[in-house]
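Example 9 (inverse folding). The structure is encoded as follows.
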């Protein structure tokens, strides 16, 4: 009788056991998903990304226990297009949302026919909720409840679109509502309390839904100017008020984590922390820091679109990994689909890639994974015009023919276009061709004729 040698079988078993821990099979209970999305927070604003004075112990711990991405991009240097891309996995232009931010007087928004992460996960049986700043259209018919969310508490647009923060040249009398579901529950809420109230909403939602899969989208309105912290945080940070605001957001991360641990679901919850665009530099100490990166909000320099991104899922995302892979906000939807076993119901093209193998730090990349390494990322201006392309270590900015090797020149100081003429032409050709395809297949936003909410009578004050 043939007796297989014992040692190879043991080795094989160990290898297989090793595989089952590195390449996790999906649990029967799909993982909860929490996306925490700061507003205008820069690449250099967190302690774990090198800030010397801002204390972010909870985020630092998440990074130490999970993955810190150093080349994570959002799809636009301003709010609304960046949010549209995060939730749909599409370049803003593909879904008609590339033309700068949505102002209170606007009557359009992201088309509800687009499939958002919330749609995807709700279809999979998740409870879904958004706590924070929406900014993808705010007339009735365009709010989170029209886009796959079961619940919404937050503000419909930026916190400076308020009657207390009119700027010289503002033509319209803006007013900021706090909305629950589809209804205004308060006009001009106390902004000192926004971070706290939204965090409490998210924790209460987790408490209510801990025994079923859930998706929490927590897009903080802070640290977008005007910045506010609650009195527990005001005056505490060595960095001043901006530091107070970041430290309160860090507290919020700690509260979410504590809720997950209280219910024993931390190891079945994927948490991602990032921001919609870079720091608003003209506001000086009230704007954030892009650290070593050039530029900030509104620009296509790295400071406008490269963001901190921390991914935490104990037992699945390995601890303490710093990943230099290029990952973008476009990739979150297809990656969430893969990690949660969700059926993709869309028949329209999207732009994101499934980055599961990167986030789980799987050592054996498939052919499909390796193909990702040849892919590229397009930059668009805050007004939606094609601005540049990143492929491998190279970044080409089209307007002035600037080529940077951003892996050795993170601050974009040395334009090496002249010495690399053939590469410049190759990248330009790829960018123009891809943009033409997106333009040709671009889908419409939804314009509605529903009236806005009844504005408060004293809105012009
Ligand atoms: Mg923003």
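The amino acid assigned to each position is listed next.
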């Amino acid at each position: 009788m043939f007796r297989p040698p014992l040692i190879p079988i043991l080795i094989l078993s160990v290898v297989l056991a090793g595989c089952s821990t590195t390449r996790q099979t999906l649990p029967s209970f799909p993982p909860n998903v929490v996306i925490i999305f700061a507003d205008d927070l820069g690449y250099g604003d967190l302690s774990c990304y090198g800030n010397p004075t801002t204390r972010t112990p909870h985020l630092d711990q998440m990074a130490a226990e999970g993955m810190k991405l150093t080349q994570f991009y959002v799809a636009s240097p301003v709010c609304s297009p960046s949010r549209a891309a995060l939730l749909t996995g599409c370049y803003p232009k593909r879904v008609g949302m590339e033309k700068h931010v949505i102002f209170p007087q606007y009557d359009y928004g992201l088309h509800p026919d687009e499939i958002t992460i919330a749609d995807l996960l709700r279809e999979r049986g998740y409870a879904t909720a958004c706590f924070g700043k929406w900014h993808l259209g705010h007339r009735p018919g365009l709010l989170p409840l029209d886009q796959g969310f079961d619940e919404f508490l937050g503000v419909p647009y930026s916190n400076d679109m308020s009657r207390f923060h009119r700027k010289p040249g503002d033509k319209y009398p803006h007013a900021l509502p706090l909305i629950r579901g589809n209804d205004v529950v308060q006009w001009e809420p106390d902004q000192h309390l926004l971070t706290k109230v939204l965090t409490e909403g998210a924790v209460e939602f987790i408490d209510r839904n801990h025994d079923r899969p859930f998706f929490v989208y927590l897009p903080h309105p802070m640290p977008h100017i005007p910045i506010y912290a609650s009195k527990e945080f005001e005056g505490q940070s060595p960095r001043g008020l901006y530091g107070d605001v970041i430290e309160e957001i860090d507290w919020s991360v700690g509260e979410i984590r504590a809720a997950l641990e209280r219910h024993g679901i931390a190891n079945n919850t994927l948490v991602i922390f990032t921001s919609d665009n870079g720091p608003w530099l003209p506001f000086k100490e009230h704007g954030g820091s892009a650290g070593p990166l050039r530029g900030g909000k509104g620009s296509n320099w790295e400071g406008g679109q490269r963001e901190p991104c921390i991914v935490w899922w104990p037992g699945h995302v390995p601890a303490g990994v710093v990943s230099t892979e290029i990952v973008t906000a476009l990739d979150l939807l297809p990656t969430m689909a893969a990690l949660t076993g969700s059926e993709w119901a869309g028949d329209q093209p999207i732009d994101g890639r499934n980055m599961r193998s990167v986030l789980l730090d799987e050592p054996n990349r498939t052919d499909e994974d390796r193909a990702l390494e040849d892919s590229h990322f397009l930059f668009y201006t805050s007004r939606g015009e094609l601005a540049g392309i990143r492929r491998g270590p190279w970044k080409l900015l089209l307007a002035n023919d600037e080529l940077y090797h951003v892996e050795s020149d993170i601050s974009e100081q040395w334009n090496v276009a002249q010495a690399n003429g053939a590469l410049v032409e190759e990248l330009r050709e790829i960018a123009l061709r891809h943009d033409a395809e997106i333009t040709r297949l671009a889908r419409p936003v939804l314009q509605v004729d529903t009236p806005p909410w009844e504005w408060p009578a004293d809105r012009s004050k």
